[in-house]
Amino acid sequence: MSVTWSDWLPLEHTSQFTPALLAETLDGGQAFRWSFHADDDFWQGTFGKHLVRIRIEKSMTLRCSFPNGAENSINALRSYLGSETNWESILDSLPWRSDEHLATCLAGFRGLRILKQPFAETVLCFLCSATKQIPQIKIMCARLAAELGDEIVPGIHALPTWEQLNAASEVQLRALGLGFRAKNIKRTAEQIAEAPGLLDTIEGLPYAEAKAKLLALAGIGEKIADCALLFGAGKLEAFPVDTWIIKVLQTRYQLHGWTPSQLAQFGRVHFGRYAGFAQQFLFSYERLSARKR
DNA sequence: AGGCAGGTGGCCA
DNA sequence: TGGCCACCTGCC
Length: 293
Fold this sequence. Notes:
The chain has helices at about 20-25, 75-80, 85-90, 100-110, 120-130, 135-150, 160-165, 170-175, 180-195, 200-205, 205-215, 220-230, 245-250, 260-270, 275-290, and strands at about 10-15, 35, 40-45, 50-55, 60-65, 150-155, 155. It is an alpha+beta fold. Among the domains are: about 10-85, 2-Layer Sandwich (TATA-Binding Protein); about 120-230, Endonuclease III, domain 1 (Orthogonal Bundle), CATH 1.10.340.30. Strands 1-5-4-3-2 form a 5-stranded antiparallel beta sheet. A two-stranded antiparallel sheet has the order 6-7. Strand 4 (about 50-55) and strand 5 (about 60-65) form a beta hairpin.
């Protein structure tokens, strides 16, 4: 039996969003669960127990579709996409007036957003991300879902919960191609099992405290903690420093010789309370430049 | 065919 | 603290 889908429901109208920006937001390294269906021009993905399709029309209207009967996922989707957030105003508050390179990046990706993904699965996806490129991370996440996650509709699974992960063995996780990440995921699953409600607590904490608690989990260092807090907990001040951002800050901000930790500090101070939002523009711009070469 | 990829943790000075 | 290296796997 196959899934039937609802009509395309209007999600929001925006003059800023474009197909390229939707792609960059859903599939540019924040989330790893979206795939583009070129034939019918829509994105399909899951977050939590929601299965969703999104498309953008020429009139710049975002429309969405759900498996019949699951139409109320639209509320969760609005939250996921930050539909209620005034991104334009946050963007304007970034220090682009005194930072020429930031201004260039903002101009190139105006309309880009930060997702608000379910925190627990954001932690999982970024535990998979260590020294992997986006396509590999997506494969790992897909395998985790297929093998361990609940089935949302026939053939499509949610990412596993931490309870489901804890029920798996490290050997079983390794068999999914996770490599050394399997041990970290297994250990973190155990730590979470020992402290029920831990992730919910962390999500509700202020940035610095939340980060300190995340760093105590196996396999989570500065970068992964910041990614989880930025893309999964709405903490826009989190400033993940990965190899791309190191390169940007060294070459375009003349910060050669700075350690990743010092660069993170610089980022939070220089870009301010929405540093993570700024980071995403620097990241997208740098990645796009690299692909063109 | 070997190096490297959106890191982390452990070990050493 | 700061630098180095092992760690899985797959793709260029």
